């Protein structure tokens, strides 16, 4: 399966063109990039560029309005996490592929119910590397703790994790070995990282998905 960076921000949201990010992705070992807020899709330098829609909403009704208005024709739909009720509603709706920004939320915002829904609906919870790299001190530790909790839920219930660089310029993109090193900070194994890097591929081709639950 192809490895994917589940969220990059090419120009105009970021500083680098989609072509430059695709070229960097090829050097780093990726076969797909999910490009947020970008109208360009296709393939450059052997790297598939997917159109992503990232929804930031004030509630579930607002989520549905934005989804209908802004996400038509997108390959991957992601939504920022919120409180426990919102997360359950968004995940169980079957309208979202990736739940992002869980590190911004309270620890109780993602629970056993959300985890079961995510496993049933094939929704991935995103590990945003930029949330670790750009923070320090207490905020970084809070992020690592939250990601560690999500990892435990994933091991218990079998839902997918995705991994994204959150890069806004090509130097911010991360190679596979660097991703493994960063994710080891909250307990991910090499096999778990590489499995997570294939989550976008499994979202696009659910028939090929294989559920793996570690004890």
UniProtKB/TrEMBL annotation:
Part of ribonuclease P, a protein complex that generates mature tRNA molecules by cleaving their 5'-ends. Belongs to the eukaryotic/archaeal RNase P protein component 3 family. Pfam families: RNase_P_p30. Transmembrane segments: none annotated. Its EC number is 3.1.26.5. Consists of a catalytic RNA component and at least 4-5 protein subunits. Coiled coil: none annotated. It is found in: Cytoplasm. Gene3D superfamilies: Metal-dependent hydrolases (3.20.20.140). One of its GO terms (molecular function) is ribonuclease P activity. The keyword Metal-binding does not apply. It catalyses: Endonucleolytic cleavage of RNA, removing 5'-extranucleotides from tRNA precursor. This is Ribonuclease P protein component 3. One of its GO terms (biological process) is tRNA 5'-leader removal. InterPro entries: Pol/histidinol_Pase-like (IPR016195), RNase_P_comp-3_arc (IPR023539), RNase_P_p30 (IPR002738). The keyword Transferase does not apply. The gene is rnp3. Keywords: Cytoplasm, Endonuclease, Hydrolase, Nuclease, tRNA processing. GO terms for cellular component: cytoplasm; ribonuclease P complex.
């Amino acid at each position: 399966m192809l490895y994917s960076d589940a969220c990059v921000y090419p120009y105009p949201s970021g500083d680098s063109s989609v072509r430059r990010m695709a070229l960097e992705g090829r050097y780093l070992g990726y076969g797909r990039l999910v490009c947020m807020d970008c109208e360009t899709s296709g393939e450059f330098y052997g790297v598939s560029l997917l159109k992503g829609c990232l929804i930031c909403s004030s509630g579930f009704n607002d989520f549905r309005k934005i989804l209908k208005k802004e996400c038509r024709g997108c390959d991957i739909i992601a939504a920022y996490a919120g409180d426990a009720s919102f997360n359950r509603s968004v995940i169980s709706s079957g309208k979202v592929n990736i739940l992002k920004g869980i590190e911004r939320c309270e620890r109780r915002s993602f629970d056993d119910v959300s985890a079961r829904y995510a496993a049933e609906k094939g929704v991935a919870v995103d590990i945003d590397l930029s949330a670790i790299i750009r923070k320090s001190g207490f905020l970084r530790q809070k992020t690592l703790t939250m990601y560690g909790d999500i990892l435990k839920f994933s091991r218990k219930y079998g839902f997918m994790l995705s991994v994204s660089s959150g890069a806004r310029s090509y130097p911010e993109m991360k190679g596979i070995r660097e991703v493994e090193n960063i994710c080891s900070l909250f307990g991910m194994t090499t096999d778990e990282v590489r499995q997570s890097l294939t989550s976008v591929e499994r979202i696009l081709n659910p028939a090929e998905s294989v559920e793996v639950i570690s004890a």
